[in-house]
Amino acid sequence: MSVTISIRHAVKRYGSVTVIPDLSVNIREGELFTLLGPSGCGKTTLLRMIAGFNSIEGGEFRFNDRIINDMEPGKRDIGMVFQNYAIFPNLSVRKNVEFGLKYKHMSREDMRRETDRFLQLVHVDQYADRMPERLSGGQQQRVALARALVIQPDVLLMDEPLSNLDAKLRVEMRTVIKNIQKQVGITTVYVTHDQEEAMAISDRIAVMKDGVIHHCGEPKNIYQRPADLFVATFIGKSNLIDARLKAAGGRAVLAFKNGYETEIPGVREEELRDRDVTVSIRPEELLVQLYGKDSSPAGLKATIKDSVFLGSNTHYFVELETGEDVEIIQESEIDSIIPPGSEVNLTLKAQKVNLFDPETTLSLMKGVKNSTDLPAGRDGQ
User: Is position 259 within any domain?
Assistant: First the structure.
C-alpha cells in the first residue's frame, strides 16, 4: 500500500548546529518526490528522519494518519536504496532479493514467485544465480532496487542511488527507476544533487538550501518560473544582469545600463513600479545578431570571447559592453561558428525572462507555483 507522507515543522539539530530549522511539506501518495540541493543542504538528513535513522528534535512526521516520530525503522514499512548499493557480496542475486521476504513468514514457493517477479521487473532475472561481483554497477543497482521493492513497502527511499555510476549508466538507470516507480505506484522520496536527474524523473521537486525548501513544484515550473534567485541559478544555467524596471502606462519596461529597453510580460501588478531588479536570462533565451557595417540595432552590445561546439548546440561566452560576462546557447549552424572577437547584438526572448528583487531575491513574476501541499489548519498558519 502506498501512503501520503506529511511533515510538519520538522527540526533537526546536531548539538548546537541546526541543520533543519522548520520544514513542512506533504508528499502525495504514489508520487516520485525529489529532494534536490547542494551538499550540506539537509536533503539526506530529512530522508534519514523519514527512515528513522536520524532522531527528530521537533515537528511531526506521518504516514497517512499514523505518527512515526518514535517508531523503529523496521516497523515503518519502508524500502531503501543506498548510494553504494549495499547488497550482500556473499549472496547470489536471487538470495539478495529474497532476503527481506524471510521476515514476511512466506512459504518457500511464494518467496520464489515474488523474487522472480521483481527480478523480471528490473530486468536482471537472467543473472539470478550470479554473485554480485560478476555484475556491472548498473546491474547491482537494479538488484538493490528489486530487493527494496520485493517486500512491497509503503514508502521507497532512495539516497543518491546513481552517483556511483558513469554518465551513460546514470541516464539508463533513471529511466528504469522512473518506469518501475510508475508501474509499482509506490510513494518514493528521492535524494540527489544532480539537477538534470531530478528534472528527468520527478513528479515534483523540493529545492533545498540550508535546511529550507526554497521552491516546491513540478520540474517545468521550477525551471521556467523559479521562486527566487537561488533556484534560478541552481536549476540549470542562468545569466544574472542588473537592470531597471520602469512602469509605463501599466506596462513593465526593462531598461539596461546601455540604454536598451524592452517590454517584459508577466510581472505581477503589485510589483510593477520604478525599481532596480536582477534579471535572470537562460543561455537559450538570448538571441544573437552580428553587427553589420552600418547597423546599430537595439539590444545588448557584446563581444564573443570564446565558443564551444557541442553538436546540436554551440555555447558562446561573451562580454557585454558593460563588462558583464554572459553565456549563450544557440542551435549550431551547418557551416559556421561566430569567431572570437566578433561584435554581436543580443536581444531577449522577453516572455521567458525572470525578474527578482535584489534585496529579498524573490521573484516578481506571475506564474510561480510554489506549493508544499500543506492542508489548511494543519501547518500552524
Answer: yes
Beta-carbon contacts of 346 under 8 Å, excluding residues fewer than 6 positions away, are: 286, 287, 288, 289, 299, 300, 301, 302, 318, 320, 326, 328
Calculate the alpha carbon distances from 78 to 1, 34, 63 in Å.
Answer: 11, 16, 11
242 in the same domain as 221: no
Average pLDDT, the chain: 92
State how far the Cα of 261 lies from the Cα of 110, in Å rounded to an integer: 70
Residue with cell 529579498: 360
For residue 307, count other CB atoms closer than 10 A to its CB: 18
Q: What are the tens digits of pLDDT across the range 334-362?
A: 778 899 999 999 999 999 999 999 999 99
Can you give the residue range of the structural domain that contains 256? 238-356
Q: For position 289, what pLDDT does the model report?
A: 86
Determine the distance from the C-alpha atom of residue 356 to the mean position of all C-alpha atoms in its chain, rounded to a whole number: 21
Decide if 211 contacts 23 (C-beta within 8 A). Answer: yes
Answer yes or no: are the C-beta atoms of 142 and 122 closer than 8 Å.
yes
- Regarding whether 153 and 24 lie in a shared domain, the answer is yes
In whole angstroms, give the CA distance from residue 325 to residue 338. Answer: 17
